Recover the amino acids of this structure.
């Protein structure tokens, strides 16, 4: 359209997502978002709405991007190898943490830790993202025929470990330390599975 500035919505969302991921929701100002995306305040509002609406779109984009990777990793559990599936699940997180092109940590974990100062809509979306991760893990573990309730308990534990990896990475933990955390969890799961998978 003549007279209307065109821009790549996906790139703008990625830039905003990285800004929120790096600094957090509270510490990210509209000026920060404007600098990150290359859009002025007016363009940000007209294209994405207010800061909450933009954050929700970024959180959804993040959850979809990494959610697909977690789904793919856990799909090997369908073949009766839940331990292998959970290891692949953690590898998605460890690869993201090691990626020099994205900030340390996890946008979902960061959002969950900031819940007291977030709008109800943003807080609910973070709870939903964590719940979806737990559901994915529970589905992968259900094939293992664990004792009743154990699949849910392990899924909850593994989500907690996964989120802690993100927090520890932001605090400077080494890859060796993060691998050790994963190994302890996988060892406990292996015992529960009786060495299967």
């Amino acid at each position: 359209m003549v007279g209307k500035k065109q821009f790549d919505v996906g790139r703008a969302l990625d830039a905003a997502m990285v800004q929120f991921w790096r600094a957090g929701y509270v510490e990210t100002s509209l000026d920060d978002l404007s600098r990150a995306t290359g859009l002025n305040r007016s363009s940000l509002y007209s294209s994405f709405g207010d800061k909450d609406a933009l954050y929700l779109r970024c959180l959804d984009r993040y959850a979809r991007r990494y959610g697909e990777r977690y789904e793919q990793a856990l799909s090997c559990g369908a073949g009766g190898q839940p331990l292998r599936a959970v290891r692949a699940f953690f590898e998605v997180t460890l690869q993201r943490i090691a990626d020099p092109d994205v900030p340390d940590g996890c946008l979902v974990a960061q959002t969950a830790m900031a819940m007291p100062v977030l709008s109800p809509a943003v807080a609910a979306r973070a709870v939903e993202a964590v719940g979806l991760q737990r559901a994915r893990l529970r589905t992968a573990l259900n094939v293992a025929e664990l004792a009743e309730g154990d699949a849910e308990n392990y899924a909850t534990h593994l989500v907690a470990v996964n989120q802690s990896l993100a927090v520890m990475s932001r605090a400077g933990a080494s890859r060796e330390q993060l691998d050790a955390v994963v190994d302890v969890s996988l060892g406990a799961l292996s015992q529960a599975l009786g060495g299967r998978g």
Observations:
- The chain is about 70% helix and 0% strand.
